[in-house]
Amino acid sequence: MSESVKKPILEVKDLKVHFPIKSSGGLRKKDAVIRAVDGISFDVYPGETLGIVGESGCGKSTTVRAIAQLTKPTSGQVIFQGKDLCKVSKHELLMARQNIQMIFQDPYASLDPRMTVRSIIAEPLIIYNKRHLLPKELSPLEIETRVEDLMERVGLNKAFKNRYPHEFSGGQRQRIGIARALALNPEVILADEPVSALDVSIQAQILNLLRELQKELGLTFLFIAHDLAVIQYISDKVCVMYLGKIVETSESVELYSNPVHPYTKALLSAAPIPDPEVERKRRRIILTGDVPSPDKEHVGCYFYDRCPNKMDKCKNHIPPMFTVGPHHNCACWQLEEKFPLAESEK
User: Fold this and answer.
1) Fewest beta carbons within 10 Å, which of 27, 105, 199, 268?
2) Rg (CA), the chain
């Protein structure tokens, strides 16, 4: 089925997350605002993996936390199953969270050290069971069976269900987090850098596990990472983020073979390639200048201060998204002449 026929399972429209900073009477003369996420839009389709990549501090994790409503967005819409999660009641949000679950970045901090593995995985089932929000009420034995099934599905020995998180390695702890996320049979998984705290060999195991689970259960992933190789391996489509804005979106294969935005090109040039011949011939793009402060209000391109190809227009006009190919869009004024906007987009 083509994307034009399929409906997105998750729609993010003009999402903004701003954090106010109060003046303390020192050097800062007035209140400021940190623009962690500054007006981003994208769609996620059923069964696909959308990757969001960018350097630390660009707003990736804030984006997924805002989608899950763990951080309240300043403005914008997060539409899931026809409802804007930013405006629903607490009960409706609880219902929606059955189908949107999250895997957190740090497997050491995201598991309660005082709870056994059994209690951690069973907790969402018990909560939703008590509130009569599950399709059918589960008995204690059914919850126990479900916990054991989930442990085996993610590659953990069910005999260890009464152990505590500190008795497991980092990779095993992340498997516990994955099992917890799967407990309520969600449709969408928000994965916030789930492998960044793990050794490289363990990263591969977790990524393969996520791909197998996606295939078996028909899951949809929104996957956050700063590692370009991880995003390339796991994602069907990619959004490149810089300073709270999305600067380029494309299908994964197209983005890595034909990057358009100067920032995307710089990111890819910095990623090592395990082929000495190719690596020797590559030209590294070194960005000059400093990353602007996130409390700066931009009137022009967010990448202006570091862009090697900046023009006068870039300084005072924020570029729109230009369509440069099928499912490939880029926010850069250099594309204006070759890919003019339609009247409806101006």
Assistant:
1) 27
2) 22
What is the number of other CB atoms lying within 10 angstroms of the CB of residue 85? Answer: 21
Closest by CA to 203, choosing from 190, 215, 216, 193, is 193
For residue 337, what are its two tokens?
A: 């002449």
CA distances from 182 to 35, 61, 117, 153 (A): 32, 20, 14, 10
pLDDT in tens, 192-201: 999 988 888 8
> What is the Cα–Cα distance from 88 to 93, expressed in whole angstroms?
6
The number of beta carbons lying within 10 Å of the beta carbon of residue 34 is: 17
CA pair distance 226, 343, nearest whole angstrom: 36
- CA 188/CA 96 separation, integer angstroms: 10
Distance CA 52, CA 231 (A): 8
Contacts from 28-34 at CB under 8 Å and sequence distance 24+?
32/295, 33/295, 34/294, 34/295
| pTM (predicted TM-score) | 0.91
25-33: which pairs have CB atoms within 8 A and are 24 or more residues apart?
Answer: 32/295, 33/295
Inter-residue contact 70 to 46 (CB < 8 Å): no
Question: Of 331, 292, 300, which is closest to residue 318 (Cα–Cα)?
Answer: 300
Closest alpha carbon to 224 in 104, 76, 100: 104
Task: Give the tens place of pLDDT for each residue, 207-248.
Answer: 999 999 999 999 999 999 988 889 999 999 999 999 999 999
Q: Which amino acid is at 204?
A: A
- Give the N- to C-terminal CA distance of the chain in Å, as an integer: 30
